[in-house]
Specification:
This protein is mainly α. The protein contains 11 helices and no strands. The two termini are 35 Å apart. The protein has 2 domains: 70 residues, no CATH class; 138 residues. Helix 1 packs across helix 4 and helix 9 packs antiparallel against helix 11.
Length: 208
């Protein structure tokens, strides 16, 4: 096993552990409980100390847990969708995440504040993620049927650029910086996503 493979394996394990903690908290909340960190750790089958490595407080965990379950599932979102048009599919994915973000705005603001506060105190030294990457799986699922229409470099750039349009941060920009409403934000993001996808396809076609 190479060092790179081992590093990737540890990173994947950390993401799974974080996901397990969120899922455990969501189950307890769904059962009508108000769990403490000990209860969540036991449900996730990890130690209390491990749970605190991923979440600095039970409050930060309980804020994020419902959001984790509210994010559109890529498989379900595109189930039965036979379209191969990357513009159409990216727009569908962004629309779903957009609706989720604006519906859960207060919780997402609290979650973002908690991650920013933790980062300001000093990032974890062992690679524990501060945030769950929920947008990339949606973007990759949207682009999957047209994957061969992009060069590797264009695909990497496109997925990274789309990640800036998808999710909580773009909502904050539209709300707080630009002062526009949800409908206008959606129109602008739809326009931007189309422009990015078409630019990546054009670049890829020119390089073949």
């Amino acid at each position: 096993m190479t060092n790179e493979t081992a590093t990737d394996g540890r990173a994947n394990q950390r993401r799974r552990t974080r996901k397990d903690l969120l899922a455990a908290a969501a189950r307890l909340l769904k059962d009508g409980k108000s769990p403490d960190m000990d209860a969540v750790a036991a449900e996730a089958m990890v130690s209390r100390a491990t749970a605190y490595r991923y979440f600095p407080s039970i409050e930060s965990l309980l804020v994020e847990a419902p959001i984790d379950g509210a994010v559109p599932d890529p498989v379900q979102l595109f189930a039965g969708d036979e379209s191969t048009d990357p513009v159409e599919r990216v727009d569908r994915a962004e629309a779903a995440l957009h609706e989720m973000a604006f519906r859960n705005e207060p919780q997402l603001r609290l979650m973002l504040a908690a991650s920013l506060e933790r980062a300001a105190r000093g990032s974890p030294t062992d690679g524990i993620p501060l945030r769950q990457n929920r947008r990339t799986p949606l973007i990759e699922a949207a682009l999957a049927p047209a994957r061969d229409r992009f060069t590797p470099a264009a695909y990497r750039n496109l997925t990274a650029a789309l990640a800036m349009i998808f999710g909580t941060e773009s909502m904050i920009v539209f709300r707080d910086v630009l002062g526009v409403d949800e409908r206008t934000a959606r129109k602008v993001k739809r326009w931007a996503a189309r422009a990015l996808v078409e630019a990546a396809m054009k670049e890829s076609a020119a390089r073949r």
